[in-house]
Structures are given as structure tokens and as C-alpha cells.
Amino acid sequence: MKSISRWTWLVFAAGVAAASVAGNAKADEVSHWRLFVGDHTDPVVRAIELDDGTEAGRFDLDSYASLYRSKSGRTVFAVQGEAGKVTILRSGLTLEDHGEHVDLDIDDPERLETAFSGEKPAHFFENGGRIAMFYDGEGRADIFPEGQVLDGKFSPLTLDVGAPHHGLAASFGDYVIHSVPDPEDASRRPVALRIKDSSGNQVGEDVACPGLHGQAGSGGVLAFGCHDGIVVAMSAGSGAPELRHVSTAELGEGNVSTLRGGTALQFFLTNYGQSAVVLVEPGAETTFRKVDLPMRRVDFAVDPAKTRNTYILTEDGKLHLLDVLSGKIEKSLQLTEPYSMDGHWRDPRPRLAVAGDYLAVTDPLKGVIRLVDTDSFAEERTIAVEGMPYTIVAVGGSGKQHD
């Protein structure tokens, strides 16, 4: 069993102490969370207020969308692979750090004028202040800071990463890490990772990662899923990042293809086949801790604030709380009716998003979002949503509002 002293704690200072306000201005501490929910069948995204379930905005799209939020929470990206478009929404929630306190501005969500188009946009990933948008149908990656889409001055760094393939890219300082397509058949999963500088020149040798799929970041470290392990990317000083392959052979049959990164604890939660997850701590004496699940996994999430908490929904409709430090499932809750993992990968099934003190779980067949209090680990209430709520991201936080 691993003790807490063996974990790397990251320091994220957030000044939220009380502060005096000049003049007659009045400042109150408030918390506000907004859910962005993509429908399973209709091409639409709805913005829903967590506190009362009202609809703050509705945005029609061209096709089904996968949803991603920026780290700041100021923007939400609706990636429509079938339509070849990416619609960008301003969330309407802005947190501004003033050192001794944080200001929270609440506005209506809106569609930004900046939008992307290309063949099969797929993987979205943000790291180190820059977003990477990968287009499977072109073998192209656009790298840009969030400010470019907010200001309407979109001028990305565009990299040609080879033949069209189901790949990915990630910014790392002044460099970009991207997938390398299978040279014999680009329709198969990528086979390696490559580093390029800002001029598009390759740096170092490719690092093998057969069946590459999935990526996440935690505390300045990136991890990528492979059929035979993971590849970890970390800083090597002032130069290019170092890529290191770590085998998962000790874990038995299975592979990593979906990853979530911790915030104040440096770790990754990954899938391993359909009926297990793995806690990954790069650089530790024991890198992998496999946790077998009672049923096949539907979705999982990492709590960015309650740093020990991760949540896993299994196909029997049970929600599980997995403690990062103990490596054990501490609590379970019957939350939804069963959702079988048999059938098509895009059949309507629940998705998870952490929103402050709540875990929001879509229940598409019932047309509701279920809100679980992460302290009591009990369902507190539901929000009825028109259609079939499916994909979901949450934005928000706490701060002072000045009148």
C-alpha cells in the first residue's frame, strides 16, 4: 500500500481571502456553475444553470458534437467530426485572480465568431496555455492560445503531421508532440510519438507507442496510451521534452486508451480493458496500481478539487468512488438503470462531469442530469433536459461579485 508521503503534491495558489473594497462597491462571495450538454440525437448544445436547472442558452450545430472545455473555463469547443466543423462557445463565466481574491463575472453564454473547419476534427487537448486541435482527415494539427479565439484574431501554428490518421497532438513548451501514422496502413492506430519544434523540424528520434490513443496531463507531465504501455513526456530542462515508454506487461491482458489527469496530486487514472482502471504515478517505485471493477466501465472522472476522489460509472448503473491514495473503491451508489456496453460505441450512455461539490451525470434514456453530492455521495436532485442529454462539461467556480 502506498502512503501519502510518496505522492507528489502540486501547489496551486488561489487567493480567495477576504479583501477590502474601495468606495461604495459591495463584494459578495458567490459560486456559480454552468453545464454544457450535447444531445445524443439532435445537433444541439444546451447551457444549463446548475443551481436551478434553467436553460441559459441553446446552440444549434451541424452534427453531433464532442464537448471540451478550456482550462480557464471561458470557452467550450463543440467538435463535430461528421460535419467537419468546430463551434466555439463563450461560457459566460470568467474567473479573474487578483492575488488576495478572485473576481467572478457572470454573463450569458454566446457563440463566438471564430470557428474551425477541416476534415474530421477529433482530438482536442490543452497544455501549457496552448490548445492543440487535431484533424484526422488531414493529418494536420493547429496549435494556438485560447486568447486568439476570444479576441477573434485566430492565427494558429499549423503542423503537417503526415498521412491522415486517427491521431493527436499536444503542445509542450516551445515544442509539439504528435502521433506518427502506421507507414503500412494509416487507417490503423498510430505507431509512435514524434517531437517537433515551432518551425516544424523533428527533434530527436520517434518513440514507439503502438496503438496510440488517448492523452492527459498532470502537473507538467503528459501521458499517452499505447497497446503495450504508456509514453510519459516530461521536461528535460530548457530543451525539448523527454519521452519515455513504460510497459504495462505486468498488468496482464488489456491496454490504456483513455486517460484523466490529477490536479493537486500528480497521477493519471486510465482504463485497462473494459473491466479495470489503473492509477498511474510516473516516476514512483510502483508506477501502476490496477483496480478491477465489478462490471464493465461506462465513464470515469477525476475531481479537480477533492484531490483524492475519482468517480467511475459501471454498466449496472452503479457509481463508485475510488480513493486515489488507498487505491480502493470506498463507496458505491445505485444511480441509473443499467446501460449495457454491448452495441455501438456511440449508443446513448451516461457521461460524467465534476461541477464544484457535485458530480453531474447525464442519463440520456431518462432525459435528465443526475446531481450527486460528492461529500455525502448521494443523489441530491435531477435536472430535466429536453431530448437525450449525452456529452457534458462543467464550467464555473467561486469568487467575488462587485456591484
UniProtKB/TrEMBL annotation:
Give a yes or no for keyword Transmembrane helix in this entry.
Answer: no
Q: Which domain of life is it from?
A: Bacteria
Q: Which residues form the signal peptide?
A: 1-27
Q: What UniProt keywords apply to this chain's record, in alphabetical order?
A: Signal
In its UniProt entry, what is this protein called? Zinc transport system substrate-binding protein
Q: Can you name the source organism?
A: Neoaquamicrobium sediminum
